[in-house]
Amino acid sequence: MSSSPDGWCQTTLLHGGNAAFLEALYERYLADPAAVDPSWRRHFDQLREGAAAPEITNGPIRDQLQRFASAGPVQPNGCLDPIAAQKQAAVLSMINAYRYRGHQVADLDPLRLHEPPTIPDLDLAYHQLGPEDLDQVFHTGSLAAPARLSLREILRLLRETYCGTVGAEYMHITDTQEKRWIQRRLEAYRARPELDAEGRRWLLRLLTAAEGLETYLHRRYVGQKRFSLEGGEALIPLLDELIQRASRQGTQEVVIGMAHRGRLNVLVNILGKPPAAIFDEFEERVQLDGRRMLGDVKYHLGFATDIETPSGLVHIALGFNPSHLEIIDPVIQGSVRARQQRRHDQTGDQVLPVLIHGDAAFAGQGVVMETLQLSQTRGYGTGGTVHIIVNNQIGFTTSHPRDIRSTPYCTDVAKMVQAPVFHVNGDDPEAVIFVTRLALDFRNQFHKDVLIDLVCYRRHGHNEADEPAVTQPLMYQRIRRHPTPRTLYAQRLIAQGLIAPEAVQAMAAEYQHALEQGVVVARPVLCALDQRFRVDWRFCCNQPWDHRVATGVPIATLHRLTEAMLCLPEGFSLHPRVERLWEERRRMGLDEQPVDWGYAEMVAYASLLDAGIPVRLSGQDVGRGTFFHRHAKVYDQVTGKEYVPLQHLGPHQGAFIAINSILSEEAVLAYEYGFASAEPNALTLWEAQFGDFVNNAQVVIDQFISSAYAKWGLYCGLVLLLPHGLEGQGAEHSSARLERFLQLCANDNMQVCIPSTPAQIFHLLRRQMLRPHRTPLIVLTPKSLLRHRLAVSPLAELAQGEYRLIIPEIDPLDPQEIQRIILCSGKVYYDLLEARRARGQTDVALLRIEQLYPFPKRALAAALAPYAHVQELIWCQEEPQNQGAWNQIKHRFHHLIQQGKRLYYVGRPVSAAPAVGHRALHLEQQARLVDEALNGRYDPKLNARIALL
């Protein structure tokens, strides 16, 4: 066979017998175009011409060869006519161009604010085709169409599919199966749904409801904020179709996260919240428990309901959402994962996450990217999410489109996880229904994220008191003249003879009358019929934080659990360092040596698992532990296989998962908050690599962890493990910002604890699950103390007792000889203890406050009782004076001052940074503050001898 395409009678590109040769030749061309004959290079260049992605592989070439191996216009000797072959290749290239770039000229903007760009790839001339070719018949390749069509028919199909009111972006996906699936669905239906007359009338009814609610609220509550959906009313039929179709495909729960815009409309018209309840919120007729609950604005509130569908009951939950917009995304994902786990729904078929975004927020907020990165990971995947962007095309009222992102579309960030994006004109509700079906079916078929970009507009300003025309005069001139989606669709149905004009008016009047009555206007809403999968927090309602519970575990059980959690598969090869640790833990479990932190933590988990309580631990490097102390996961040094001993304790144990998370704090912590808020019966923990890094997730702490109960009445038992302690590692590896947590503490909303012994962390973790009380638990955990010779516990302390709020003096000192009491928390205690023992000092008592909030007043009074004669007390901390606990707890000691005692501060001076950057200076500071505390020699530069007035 010739290696040149010259003389197509000898070698034709589309001749089936040459397929293997041509495939190999094309592979060589892709690697190096100069490596093939110039005539072949010219032909391959032509074949690729017009494609938006020049890296087209030989997959399409192979498919074309197979498709046309025995077809096409051939000469008597069996060879294709060279001109016909060239034109055929051009047609295939053009089809590919429409798949890649058709969305750029699609009719997506209801307002038609901008002229569509000129895309040369979509021109016939670009592919060396012309009007004279329109009636010529060509092979359609992989087009979902008859095998042979005229070029005119091919163009009509392509333009209807890719350049109508749907714009599809999917050619960036590398998985051929996914791409082909989308191609078939788009091209076979030409991006239009199959709707009968009744379906179209129902669609109009939903648009009437969406518009009708906004009209009613606008008239009744003039100027009040509601973040209207007007302009994007197609969201309501979109969600209705999504829920109904999901139910037919087996979904039993839908969990929705969305920000403000359109939220009231979704609550009333989809979830079935009674309009009367919305009116009460506008008129502020809402009763709250002012002691702990403060409430929130109406467009932040969540709701849950059960919707009746022809396929059965569907539970719908709308998450409570603060003004930090996209922060709800990972919270919803965590809640969905908990619900799926409760149902043993491994693939996400039963619980569907739906996230509704704003265009500017989706493009602008980094938590969106972090959440997308979680979507396909083992520990955080939920089987795919349907994302809906309510794209107002404006972002903020004062924004110019070129100022709100650097990408062509607001959805472009989602391409990094190869999610398909379906842009759709919000003024074409039938096209909206088509992409809704397509998106949901893709999600359920491939269990991946998918995006619907609902391109619409915003009829009013950012809120209803805003005047958008001040900064967007041209856009709002056009909006004022533009008919509503309902009006446009009603005109369309009237023109088709499917509904009479008077019926359209009657439909609107009927809805307004229902609103006036305050009755439910959504599909039938039912009471909960099946409680098995509900989130039930009733057991901890009104339970006091100081409810005492025994958390000890019998010695025999500790022996058994130790053996179980150290058991490995036969032949498993541990790393030598881990093997030594394994042997030490075995001795600890046999009470042959004191217990360290790592053992106490792991056996605490084992004891909960043994009682059937699930444990979920996540964060960066939590499997091993940043400080090489945990080893919940071990790895065979020969095979590299991972083994998790806590998953093999016994047949009836709770589920255990330790997840090494992506390098994210904000999204992962929000995810774990969502999981814990939906699963009261599992111990859910998130660990920061260093406690300092939790400040990357400050919004989660502020908007959810500390305030969710006060705003929304939501319980959550999430545990945060934050390594903390000044040890000369610099400003970013020292402080978990204890002061920030304490500043947020009020109304018993959180627990802030600094356990200083292994027994304490053992009892603290068990207390979190065993007592009927759930609030977030903030634990400042150690670093150097993980292996400190004094920071150990006897096994007996795990077998008895409970978490001690105050640990009194442990050395046998005579209380009557004590002249000074030092109160402290955390690592500084051991520095003080070692220094006091080294000096042989017996006149200073050391008391550890192990829970800083809720502050243990009674326990402190009992610990101080033996020292009633002591007049001088010191609060000693290693953090700077303006940080750490001091400024947030000093008012807790007022009663001591009233008894005539004096309280002084000893610690580092005020500082803008948490710690110094040089170890030598750190050691000098640490030695000085220890000396000053023990000897009562206060440096006046430290604002010593502070009087509490």
TrEMBL record:
Source domain of life: Bacteria
UniProt-listed GO biological process terms: tricarboxylic acid cycle
Principal EC category: oxidoreductase
Span of domain Transketolase-like pyrimidine-binding: 595-788
CDD domains membership: TPP_E1_OGDC_like
GO terms for MF: oxoglutarate dehydrogenase (succinyl-transferring) activity; thiamine pyrophosphate binding
The protein's required cofactors: thiamine diphosphate
Keywords per UniProt: Oxidoreductase, Thiamine pyrophosphate
One Gene Ontology cellular component: cytosol
Its EC number(s): 1.2.4.2
Record flagged with keyword Oxidoreductase: yes
UniProt family annotation: Belongs to the alpha-ketoglutarate dehydrogenase family.
Summary of the function given for this chain in its UniProt record: E1 component of the 2-oxoglutarate dehydrogenase (OGDH) complex which catalyzes the decarboxylation of 2-oxoglutarate, the first step in the conversion of 2-oxoglutarate to succinyl-CoA and CO(2).
Designated name of the protein: 2-oxoglutarate dehydrogenase E1 component
